[in-house]
Write a structure and sequence with these properties.
By secondary structure, this protein is an alpha/beta fold. The chain is built from seven helices and eight strands. The protein has helices at residues 15-26, 38-50, 65-78, 108-133, 151-155, 168-185, 214-225; strands at 6-10, 30-35, 54-59, 84-87, 140-144, 192-196, 236-238, 241-242. Strands 3-2-1-4-5-6-7-8 form an eight-stranded mixed β-sheet, with helices on both faces. Helix 1 crosses helix 7 (214-225), helix 3 (65-78) packs parallel to helix 4 (108-133) and helix 4 packs parallel to helix 6. The longest helix has 26 residues, at 108-133. It is globular. The protein starts with 5 loop residues before the first strand and ends with a strand. 44% of the residues are buried.
Length: 245
């Protein structure tokens, strides 16, 4: 089995996910580019290879059980194990003008769709990849979250947290809570799992509004995916440090 470290990044064909893949690749990781769109995935793989990253495509729809199973089997065949999993794939859900999701008028189907990707998708992928992660000497899992999922910040009237997002924000709170449950389950093992907030990044996800570049947004996730043994687990980080739950 190769000693090269192996990573999988979901939603890696563009934006922050692409930059996480590029960053891990620049550190010598062989990177699986997880994405559901065949053309965009292979374009991303080509771009990464062009700058020297050992990248390979992983067809992956995090909302589809069979797709996730097939992705795990592909990584098994190509790499034999997984050292880092970055659960980056996520959606905001349908928004009203001003990037608002009014809880009093929220379409439950929008909520279901967001939770299926942002929460259930993470569980699907993480659990499918666990047998591969357990073969690593130092497995790392990173869940890309958001500070809008911080209940402490949401509840503080002195903090500007942005518009009301009744589907997206709670989905990240749910993801944060799940991260803690995984950390408790992994206690005493070599698996470290943490949540990462990329900040407000100018990507198509935000309508290219935001002060941070995708490269800047990727830095915390890359750091957490490459933590040394004995590093933190069950925590929520941004560039400036710990984010309150």
């Amino acid at each position: 089995m190769s000693e090269t470290l192996i990573a999988l990044v979901t939603g890696a064909n563009k934006g922050i996910g692409y930059e996480i893949a590029a960053g891990l690749g620049s550190l010598g990781y062989r990177v699986g580019v997880g994405a559901r769109d065949d053309t965009r995935r292979e374009t991303a793989v080509g771009k990464l290879r062009a700058v020297g990253v050992d990248a390979f495509g992983v067809p992956l729809d995090v909302t589809d059980d069979q797709s996730v199973t097939d992705a795990a089997e592909l990584i098994e065949r190509l790499a034999g194990r997984l050292d880092a999993l970055v659960n980056n794939a996520g959606i905001s859900g349908e928004m009203d003008p001003g990037w608002v999701q009014d809880p009093t008028a929220l379409d439950l189907e929008v909520l279901r769709t967001v939770v299926d990707t942002n929460v259930m998708g993470v569980v699907r992928v993480t659990n499918a990849m666990l047998p591969l992660l357990r073969r690593s000497a130092s497995p790392r899992i990173v869940n890309v979250s958001s500070s809008v999922g911080s209940l402490a910040r949401q509840a503080d009237p002195d903090i500007e947290i942005g518009p009301i997002m009744a589907a997206y924000a709670p989905s990240k709170s749910f993801l944060n809570a799940l991260t803690l449950q995984y950390a408790r389950q992994f206690a005493g093992t070599s698996i470290l799992i943490n949540a990462a907030c990329p900040g407000l990044v100018a990507t198509d996800f935000t309508g290219f509004q935001g002060p941070r570049t995708p490269e800047q947004g990727a830095t915390t996730a890359i750091r957490l995916a490459t933590l040394p043994d004995g590093g933190p687990t069950g925590s929520f980080f941004e560039d400036d440090g710990v984010v309150p739950w």
